[in-house]
Amino acid sequence: MKIIQSTIKNAEVYLSLFFILFGGVIFWQASNMHYYSEFGPGPGLLPLWTSGFIIFLAIANIVKSVKLNKDSTSLAKIFPKGTGLVNLLACVVGLALYITIVKYIGFTISGILMLTILFSRGYKWYWALGLSILVTGILFWLFVLTLGVPLPLNSFGW
Amino acid sequence: MESLGYLLQGFETAITWWNLLYCLIGVTFGMFVGVLPGLGPTAGIALLLPMTFGMEPVSSVIMLAGIYYGAMYGGTITSVLINTPGESASLMTCLDGYPLAKQGRAGTALGVAGIGSFIGGTIAIIGLMILGPAIAKQALKFGPPEYFALVVVGLSLVIGLLGKSLIKGLIAALFGLTLAFVGMDPVTATVRFAFGQENLADGFSFISIAMGMFGLSELFINAEENLKAKGERPPKIQNMLPRREEWNPVLKSIFRGSFLGFILGLVPGTNSVIPTILSYSLEKKIAKDPSRFGKGALEGVAGPETANNAYSGGALIPLFTLGIPSSPAVAVLLGAFIIHGLTPGPTLMQKNPQFVWGVIASMFIGNLILLIMNLPMANLWARITMVPFKLLLPIIFIVTAVGSFSINNSLFDVGAMLIFGIIGYFMKKMEFPVGPVILTFVLGKIMESSLLKSLTMFSGKFYMFFQRPISATLLIIAIATIVISLSLEFKNKKIGGEVEI
To answer: Which of the 8 DSSP states describes residue A144?
Structure first.
């Protein structure tokens, strides 16, 4: 019972499970490809071996981490809490939002939105908005107008 | 003599006003990312890469290489002043640099580090100039089996030297290797693991993985821990030079560090932390009074700082001559070569001498610029540590998003970067090394095509690798490395094992 409880609370188990899942998908797909072809080794040869080793090593890592049961790898220690968690979520959500909307509303507006979310973690909203407009403006000038880097723009060209 | 002629031609390319400007931008940005804890040379090069698209290849690589060796200088400043290494190669500098700062000798520690870095960097460039053409000439004789064996040596060293746990290091290395297989198979052109996604038909973008695993994951960790942190006011820096009686031992340490760093730079799969640890251990071992180390010994700063700069010069030799990156930062540099239509490898020096020697010449100039920046301008750099992270983080974030998009004009790449950033964040939190993911991703592509070509040549008979002297020797070295790594793992003795690149 104690082992099951410590296993559930062990963050390394979950990361290892991710690697097992990743290795499993690759292994399953690779096993449907030719191991050997008429030209020599087939497209499935190397992926089959590497994914197989990933699965094996990830299982070994689960066994090792459960056996060691280190406090430093407990979910409570690994997963952020409070302000740290909000900061982290602001980064992930800000970037995910940018990726989702940039092709519809263009770089400048989506850039300002993402930056406002990020700056607002450290500054008052009006400072966050002002800084976001300033930084996006500078980047638009630098990348689009000066360096000619093609960015997703709206119908107004920004 | 031939090299000297080429080098003079290289200077002709490097001292044009625009290349000098790009060199200055590169080393300044490198110093900047080196000074900022959390952003190393790998993320720094990846960040500026999109800006180089419209530039000439030589100017672009001059700038990006400047970031690489500039970061090595920058990392020292925070190690000495606030006991926080700007990048992992400066970790050993904290041990004696910070005690020196507490004794009011921060200036001397930075001065010695600056002089050592300049001498180490210059010796490595001279080594690159002498050894590069000779190695490239030999490498022209390499066929697919020799390339495969060489990459296997690199991979075995990656596994053996990184991270706290061999199992975690192996998982990370195999993860990167498997990611390299996504996309078209080099022999049969079968599209693998694309799951019907057109974006994956050519595989993952290298920049998405590098920026996600190194840049974004580090930003996530910093956002979680340091967003409200206020920059510590650094002590005033004065008296940059050592006392008269200190010059002799310091110079000896510098020359030992140069040699050690340069040699280790030649070995694919090492990282810049290893020469610094070995140099520190060596200095401590041969010192008349080892008890001074850890309390403010100048040799403890001079040796490791020189070694990491000599390493970065030496590490460019496998890239220029064999097309094999020796560290994640060099792997990103390799990505830059490919984006600009250059193929690193033995033919690069023959086909593009103006490019190679222009870059080498610019490194001499860059080292000189860095020496000037480090000695009289050290106080100015120290103040950068006071810039609040809550201001820097969003700016770095949006530049990362723009950079990742502009490689292929693909939002899919930005999404992939976010996913790899999240994976990298959890890997770092659970002490899985992320360096091997990048290295094996790059080496995996070279390894797969050379293995498949070799096995086709050998009609599938693997033992024939051992019938060719070079490939046999290299494979035996790789096997020995793996065996030694495994035995060290069981005995829990690893060189550089506590430090991740």
So the answer is: I
Residues in Cβ contact with B81 at an 8 Å cutoff, skipping those fewer than 6 apart: B98, B101, B106, B234, B235, B237, B382, B385
Residue of B425, B471, B492, B421 lying closest to B207 (CA atoms): B421
What radius of gyration, in Å, describes the C-alpha atoms of chain B? Answer: 22
Domain count, chain B: 1
CA dihedral A81, A82, A87, A92 (to 10 degrees): 50
With a CB-CB cutoff of 8 Å, which residues 26-55 of chain A face chain B? 26, 29-30, 33-34, 36-37, 39-43, 45-47, 50-51, 53-54
ipTM summary value: 0.94
Other C-beta atoms lying within 10 Å of the C-beta of residue B283: 27
CB B413 within 8 A of CB B407: yes
Task: Write out chain A residues lying below 8 Å of B388, CB-based.
Answer: 122
Q: What is the dihedral of CA B237, B238, B240, B241, to 10 degrees?
A: -150
Residues in chain A: 158
Q: Compute the count of residue pairs across chains A and B with CB atoms less than 8 Å apart.
A: 174
CA distance B120 to B113: 10
Give mean pLDDT, residues B343-369: 84
The one-letter amino acid code at A86 reads V
Q: Angle at which helices A107-119 and B389-408 pack, to 10 degrees?
A: 150
Q: How confident is the model over B473-487, as pLDDT tens digits? A: 989 988 888 888 777
- The tokens for B185 are 């198979």
Asked if the C-beta of A118 comes within 8 angstroms of chain B's C-beta atoms, the answer is: yes
DSSP B13-38: HHTSHHHHHHHHHHHHHHHHHHHSTT
Residue B364 phi/psi, 5-degree rounding, is -60, -50
Range of the domain at B108: 8-229+257-491
The answer as to whether B245 is a domain residue is no
B486 touches chain A (CB under 8 A): no
The pair of structure tokens assigned to B275 is 């020469």
- What residue has token string 């690489």? B68
pLDDT at B290: 84
The closest CB to that of B227, out of A29, A34, A87, belongs to A87
Which residues between 397 and 416 in chain B have a beta carbon less than 8 angstroms from any beta carbon of chain A?
Answer: 397-399, 401-402, 405-406, 409, 411, 414-415
Residue of B nearest to A52 (CA): B174
pLDDT at position A102: 92
Cα distance between residue B286 and residue B275, in whole Å: 16
- How do the pLDDT tens digits run along chain A, 158 residues long? 667 777 777 888 999 999 999 999 999 999 988 887 776 678 888 899 999 999 999 999 998 888 877 766 778 778 888 888 999 999 999 999 999 999 899 999 999 999 999 999 889 999 999 999 999 999 899 888 877 777 888 777 77
- Cβ atoms within 10 Å, residue A149: 19
| Residue position matching structure tokens 């970790």 | B91
Contacts of B402 (CB under 8 A, 6+ apart): A107, A139, A143, A149, A151, B50
